[in-house]
């Protein structure tokens, strides 16, 4: 052993057989091996190799300090680690218990936790302990927040846990002066307590009464921390030393005596690959294993720098070690108070040399869940060791810290990058662990019980840092294997509730992590919540369909869904992943849901039941359509009743919004009457009267929309511009009609949807995206203008070095007008540096800037009719299908679903002839028949099943009569023909020229 500093003549304290006093560093030949030591302001304590303890007290007489003779302290237990404070000493026994030694050397055992303690550390007047399950306990004075328990606890002589560190897998605790630190597995550093000189490294001088992450040390791969009275040193895995806090004595090693409020690299040690550090009260030591040298800097007034000069030193310099150490290997260095120490091996070779820590700093292996442990559980499950296995399962699986530190991604030290953008988990390890565990039912059942009864109740809703959140990614993988064995539903609900207890900021971090998962992993985790939710609904548990468990499952899915939507322009996971396609909500249930939806609006209310319509992404398309229709009918009724009432079965209120039109002036009459109407009337059922025909009310509605939209979308109307193929329309950049027309067009589109009518609306997907507030993309331009989209993609893909040679500017032509995409710089050139900016600006102009005013007018009109919140239930492709229909024709289904009335049946000769004729029609003629029958030549989004054709005989008809149709009822009035030929001629003529009220 060798020592230097205050009163370093250890002949007086009885450690040595002989000593050599040939330099400023004293070489001591020990009577027995020293396992660990610690020095405080007024005490030095040693643990000998037999686990016994010796203490030397430093006293002051007549202004001089001296060390009294080392005395053994007789204890009935063996000590494995210790730490000295100002005057008190904390001991750690081999059994993991903590003993407190007061200034009079009186021991007392502290009760800390049912788990064994693995580390202890002392500041001047406070102490810290770390348990095997990574709980941190503190006790002592709290004048500067050094206990980390908050502002309201000035002093606590009873060890109390720091809840904010709950769940974080910790490697080390340390303390010094009035500050404390904890270090996580992944190198996150948390400090609390006194910070008047910046000793917490947080960039300011404000004390902290609870653990705060030292952000400046993120990603630095910190592996060890040491504290002085008002300064701190940290060591990284790469051997770099950073210091911060008080520099009054030069103890930061930055060639200055100034304080540092943030961690700063000790430049003089750069490249030396330091393997150990130790802080005394006002000095610092650093050990370089490769050269067997110790460097010191800071206060040297008591010789604690070991350089023979009692002066302060602000840069690291080698300690003047005695010659006796030349053939010895230094094992450990220690600093405390105004003393410094080192331990050497007895021989030239060391059996196991520490790379960065002392035995007392222990990196005692905290229990983790790995394949080796699981193999042991499985092999011993049926043996007499089962009780011991259950105890170990409880120890590991009841601790969030243990599980959070169990599956780290150590490839290229990736877990050291844990942050908001990285969880640090290796999901292959997680999956393999639980998959292996599932092979033994008893083991899996015990894990399930421990997680449910012990882990979840102990979770803290606002852990400091990020590592405490890993548990919420790990547990769904456990749920997956449980659900495969048809168990774990209640645990799933409990975990959902635990997630929702998280502080909103922590929930946002978890959302970021969800979106960083591989899509395959994310889909499986979504499947966990859906499976339990679907199980509750399909099992007939109607009473449970509104309870908190269901609500929590919906809310978790809601958070994942919103995170997915906000993850970028293109969601990571398709929206269909969230949908419970297999479950069909019945209309009566949805009617109840509609009432709750209005009652609770979109606000979270304590005690509110599960409202499925607040989470439309779980509803399948038919359920969305049903809810929209229920909401529509209820709104129609609400126009006559001040209360929002939904009673099943629904019935439509008798009061209509009426349009009285003339065929010759269809658009003019429609626009005029819409302009003059009270907007609240739009929410009534629509009835169309034509040419003063008062006998019929609603029979003309479908034909009205058919012909009106044909005229509005025709090029002659000049309301829209068209793509090169004239197949798709878009809002013009240059107005050719009044702006109000777009408001009225929006009203008409809203009326069509509101009244359940499919319309002719040849607009691209970009239209439906914008209506739902979803960003457009290059894919949308490809649909509208493939040539232009190809050109823009060509620019993006063009080699960067050649883009400047394209001779292009930000000036483009759109809708016949030249436009500057960058109004700040006329004639701005397109270069390799700004080509993406150019393309993005072009797309933004086409779909947003150029149509901003007219589209806003359209939206204003559309949502005067339809409830915006309910329309947003639909995805863009769904809304397009609901409004415009699809072209997935299945004529056989039409035939199978046809109903025959009166004298007709499926075997009637006229009906048999009709279907033979129908099958011989061309595809276009069949579409024309659909238009003739329903007023629309497209299929409802839910398919041909939604069309139920009824066939009756046409009263008082002859062979000269044509078939007729009532489009609102899909009713075909078919005359009795005496031959197939006649039927064929009359049918083709009818569908070609005879369209509802438009016939001559």
From TrEMBL:
<feature type="domain" description="HECT">
    <location>
        <begin position="678"/>
        <end position="997"/>
    </location>
</feature>
<dbReference type="InterPro" id="IPR058923">
    <property type="entry name" value="RCC1-like_dom"/>
</dbReference>
<feature type="repeat" description="RCC1">
    <location>
        <begin position="239"/>
        <end position="290"/>
    </location>
</feature>
<dbReference type="Pfam" id="PF00632">
    <property type="entry name" value="HECT"/>
</dbReference>
<feature type="repeat" description="RCC1">
    <location>
        <begin position="187"/>
        <end position="238"/>
    </location>
</feature>
<keyword id="KW-0833">Ubl conjugation pathway</keyword>
<dbReference type="InterPro" id="IPR000569">
    <property type="entry name" value="HECT_dom"/>
</dbReference>
<dbReference type="Pfam" id="PF25390">
    <property type="entry name" value="WD40_RLD"/>
</dbReference>
<dbReference type="InterPro" id="IPR051709">
    <property type="entry name" value="Ub-ligase/GTPase-reg"/>
</dbReference>
<feature type="repeat" description="RCC1">
    <location>
        <begin position="134"/>
        <end position="186"/>
    </location>
</feature>
<keyword id="KW-0677">Repeat</keyword>
<feature type="active site" description="Glycyl thioester intermediate">
    <location>
        <position position="968"/>
    </location>
</feature>
<keyword id="KW-0808">Transferase</keyword>
<dbReference type="InterPro" id="IPR035983">
    <property type="entry name" value="Hect_E3_ubiquitin_ligase"/>
</dbReference>
<protein>
    <recommendedName>
        <fullName>HECT domain-containing protein</fullName>
    </recommendedName>
</protein>
<dbReference type="InterPro" id="IPR009091">
    <property type="entry name" value="RCC1/BLIP-II"/>
</dbReference>
<dbReference type="GO" id="GO:0016740">
    <property type="term" value="F:transferase activity"/>
</dbReference>
<feature type="repeat" description="RCC1">
    <location>
        <begin position="292"/>
        <end position="346"/>
    </location>
</feature>
<dbReference type="InterPro" id="IPR000408">
    <property type="entry name" value="Reg_chr_condens"/>
</dbReference>
